[in-house]
Amino acid sequence: MANRAFKIKPAEGISAAFVAAFVLVPLAAVIWRAGTLGGFSAADWAALRFTVGQALLSASLSVILAVPVAKALARRNFRGRRMLITLLGAPFILPVIVAVLGILAVFGRSGLVNTALDALGLPEISIYGLQGVVLAHVFFNLPLATRMILQGWQAIPGERFRLAASLGMRPRQVSRVLEWPMLRAVVPGAWMVIFVLCLSSFAVALTLGGGPRATTLELGIYQAFRYDFDLGRAAMLAVVQLGLAGGAALVALWVSVPSGFGAGLDRVVRRYEAETVLARVGDGLAIFAAAVFLLIPLGLVILNGIRGLSVMPSQVWEALGVSLLLALCATALTMVLALALARRGEAVGYLGLAISPMVIGTGLFLLVNPVISPMALAFPVTVAVNAVMALPFAVRVIGPEMRALEADWGRLGAVLNIRGWAWLRWVVLLRLRKSLSFAAGLSAALAMGDLGVVALFASPDWATLPLQMYRLMGAYQMQAAAGAGLLLLMSSLFLFWIFDRGGRGDVDV
Amino acid sequence: MRHLAFAAGIFLAGQALAETPVLKVYTYDSFVSDWGPGPVIEKRFEEVCDCDLQFVGAGDGAALLARLKLEGKRTDADVVLGLDTSLTAQAAETGLFAPHGKTPKVDVPTPYEEAGAWSDPLFLPYDYGYLAFVYDKTKLSEAPKTFEELAASDVKIVIQDPRSSTPGLGLLLWVKAQYGDQAEAMWGTLSDNIVTVTPGWSEAYGLFLEGEADMVLSYTTSPAYHRIAEKDDSKAAAVFEQGNYMQIEVAGKLAGTDQPELADRFLDFMLSDAFQSAIPELNWMYPAVTPKDGLPSGFDAPLISDHAVLIEPAKVPAMRAEALSEWQTALSR
């Protein structure tokens, strides 16, 4: 056992080296080409303050609000629960502009809320500003946080709740003994992932932020690459971003305490302590509020998109095929890397989130260009970048469970001499079915909706669905673009659903 | 035997393909979409050139230039189409472009050129337009006619960020050209009219159509799109008394192209009727050379040249840096 824990397996080493190289070498290439790192101006300090401030607020709010929702979903069963859980994944995978238009249809100047306020003779509220940025980030990330925390709840063996009930524990005691340790283990990681995700926000922050006050570091990177072609400045901002993400990861590691519930027999979880009226009403409200907040903008996106479906050009369907293929390839690569890195390489896995995709893309471009036309490598590069960008989510989802698995079943495995493929096939794939399928669904949906790198490597022969959608918008075809957006949402959700079927959390497993 | 013939067929087809010269034209994304002029122009040029014309979409005008700088001398591009006059100074500085050697007669009312003349040795214009605030006539009965009127009104506008979008940069230069040292103060008075600033044109226009603002920074030709393509006459563009900022879109030949003759032919083709007649109703801009059938009905006549504001390309880089920091300061308060 000791041997097993400390020997680095080749798969682990190779995967870690691949991910680290894939992220850090492009950064180095950008720095090398620039020759120098840029300086930090007063405007950059303002951008840094805003970036960190909004990310702190967004991540904290997302996680705090997700706890009661996840708790309610973990202990209630009702019709439509499975569908609700799948739909909750939708905001996270929507292209930014589609989601923003959905949010504005509710909270914008002529949105539902202001129309209602106006009818009642009340003053209008403005979404533009820090409040709008945070609102949109919570819209994107509350579902992600909910899913991660829900998984934590489901990882508590049902036997522990039974034991708590037979000891006559009251709800508050159950919370302290079972739920609090689980939250200590799961919440810091979820918070960190969302914090880092919000650090690199730029289109949401700018559009809903209301102006240059809401400038993020990522916008600085974009500007440096596209308008000033100041590679040194872009690299410097990317290094700052990397530092922030690293800092957040350290904080999360420091706060997080492994829970150690031990193995269970996967029996039905019946939550004896939660059978009071008050708990039922509370849970109902939490689920209802989350569903209203997330599903109304989504519904408006769908309504708007349906009108566009009939006017979509055939290019959109070709792009759908490309995106599906890309998503499947990226998912396969993500899962291989995630399985290899989940036990001890989680930190390496996060690198993909910590560096701006603009920097990775540009660096790869610089590396590839002297050898071969970057356009020729557009597809494999896009697959690899998407795989590495989805990796943080996959390792976050799989990591804690993989370590628990080792702790709970590792000794038995060692005694029976189950290792290598057999361990993977008969223990990991069976026991981690839920988290593996959730991670795969997430990766596929993320790759489906990504716009970052492909735009840089754009080839004349093919385009992805998000790229095609933006091209339609750029040619006044807002209606067709809305249709393409709906198609993207549906296909992402479909992929997510297919993968996630095995893993949708059930009260009765 | 049949398999052999099949294999030989594939081989021969491959040979034939290899012998057809390929002309790669880098352009912005909206040009290459099905709704843009790209597909029509590709078909028309391939009918006469005995070549394979490939359009490569690379973001917007600024992204196009960035891509070119990244690729440097090794670029695959033979022609770049879609820069505008606020980018040409930077583009010329890269040394990647070759002189076109032509003295075309164009119908572009460039303020700093003699009528019909075009003197840029590297870049040729293919279309132009004017920035303008577009609004819905049914919702806004009286549109402001100056920046002062706009600032004094409670009309809400959505604009694009000059750090990430070409029309946004155009507005920045427009205000700077008109107000000089007073530009920062003008931005200060405009700030309460600005609902938000978006990364690009698409987001801004989408927000406007969703009713988030009364006016959006777009082009004087935008209403023509709604009028012709959507049979909707409700949109109008505000023509400002002191002029609207002009955008001239240009194309240039790369010095390192392996198809110099084909590239030259493309540039000639670009100013011919077959290309120019596709511009108004597919790119929604004014053609650089008016097609023989004139502008489509529903298109307003272009503004007269003394009504156009445009900063000379060479002066743009220095002015842009100053104007940008003023803009940022004024709107961050």
Concise synopsis of the structure shown:
The complex is a heterodimer of chains A (509) and B (333). With 509 residues, chain A is an all-alpha fold. Chain A contains 24 helices and no strands.
Number of helices of chain A: 24
What best-fitting shape of chain B do the alpha-carbon axes yield? Answer: globular
How big is the Rg of chain A? 23 Å
Measured between the Cα atoms of the first and last residue of chain A, the distance is 30 Å
What would you say the CATH architecture of the domain at 1-35 and 310-509 in chain A is? Answer: Orthogonal Bundle
Largest sheet of chain B: 12 strands, mixed
SSE pattern of chain B: HEHHEHEHEEHEHHEHEHEEHHHEEH
Distance between the termini of chain B: 79 Å
Helix content of chain B: 25-40%
The percentage of residues in β strands of chain A lies in under 5%
Describe the structure.
The complex is a heterodimer of chains A (509) and B (333). Chain A is built from 24 helices and no strands. Chain A has 509 residues and is mainly alpha-helical. Chain A has a domain of 235 residues: MetI-like fold. Chain B is α/β, with parallel strands linked by helices. Chain B folds into two domains: 183 residues, Periplasmic binding protein-like II (D-Maltodextrin-Binding Protein, domain 2), CATH 3.40.190; 143 residues, Periplasmic binding protein-like II (D-Maltodextrin-Binding Protein, domain 2). Chain B contains 14 helices and twelve strands. In chain B, strands 1, 2, 3, 4, 5, 6, 7, 8, 9, 10, 11 and 12 form a twelve-stranded mixed beta sheet that branches. In chain B, α7 crosses α8. Classes of the chains: A mainly alpha (509), B alpha/beta (333). The interface between A and B is large, with 59 and 61 residues.
